[in-house]
Amino acid sequence: DDGDDAAQPLKKRLRQWEENVTQQFSSVMETIETSVQDASVKESLLKMIQETKNNVLQRPLEDVPNTKNRTSTKAPPPKTVRVISEIQRQTSTPIESLSNILNENATKNGEDHKPVQLQTNKFVVRVNRDPKIQESRLQLPVCGEEQEIMEKILENDVVIICGETGSGKTTQVPQFLYEYGFGNEQSGYPGLIGVTQPRRVAAISTAKRVAEELNTPFGNKVSYHVRYDNNLSEDTTIKFMTDGVLLKEIQSDILLSQYS
C-alpha cells in the first residue's frame, strides 16, 4: 500500500504527460490535414504519425522506483525520427514541439541516449515524390539516420558512413543533401553534389534511379558523366560519375571548386 501511495504523484505526472502528448500530436495531425494537398500522401502521413504517437505513449516518462516492472527509457527508434523528418518536409509548419516531446521522454542512459534534434534549416527543397516510391524509401535503414547524417556533414569536413549493401547510402544521401539545399545558390551551399561509382554502368543506372525517386527528368537535376558520354545540363545539381572522371577533374581543379 505504501508503495502505491508513493507512486500516485508519478502516475499523475504520467497522465498529464500523456494528455500533453495527445494534444501535441493532434495539433500536428491538424497541420497535416490543412497543409498537405495530395490525398494519398496525406493518408500515409496521418497513418505514420498515429503509429508514432502510439509508440511514444508506450514509453514511460521515467523509471519507477521500487517496482518490479522497472523500465529504462531510451531515445526514440530510428523509424520515429524518420517519420518526424518526413512530416517536417511534407508540411510547411515547423513541428519542433515533437522534438521536445520525444526528448522529455528520453533520459540519459549511457550510449543508448540520442536526443532528437529536428532539422532547423529554413531552406528546404520540397520534392513531390510518387507515394509508392516514398513508402519504399522510408523502409531503407539509412533514412532512419538522415537527421544524424546531415548534422555530421554540417559539423565536419569529412564524414564516413558505413552500412550494408542495399541500405541506401548511394541513392539516399545525395537526396538528403539536395533537399537540404546543397546545389542551390539560394541556400548558401552552391555547387554540385558529386557521387562517384567504380563502373560506368553503375554510375548511369544509379543516376537514373535517383532521378526517378526525385520525380525529375533524367538529365535535368540529376545527371551522369562517364568517359566519352554524359547528359549534364545547366540545371544539374546531382552528378554521378566514375572515379576516373573525378580524378581527371582534380588534375585541372585540385580544390574541386564546382562542387558544394
TrEMBL record:
GO terms for biological process: maturation of SSU-rRNA from tricistronic rRNA transcript (SSU-rRNA, 5.8S rRNA, LSU-rRNA). One of its GO terms (molecular function) is RNA helicase activity. Its EC number is 3.6.4.13. It catalyses: ATP + H2O = ADP + phosphate + H(+). SUPFAM superfamilies: P-loop containing nucleoside triphosphate hydrolases. Residues 150-260 form the Helicase ATP-binding domain. GO terms for cellular component: nucleolus. Keywords: ATP-binding, Helicase, Hydrolase, Nucleotide-binding. The keyword Hydrolase applies. Belongs to the DEAD box helicase family. DEAH subfamily. This is RNA helicase. It comes from Percolomonas cosmopolitus.
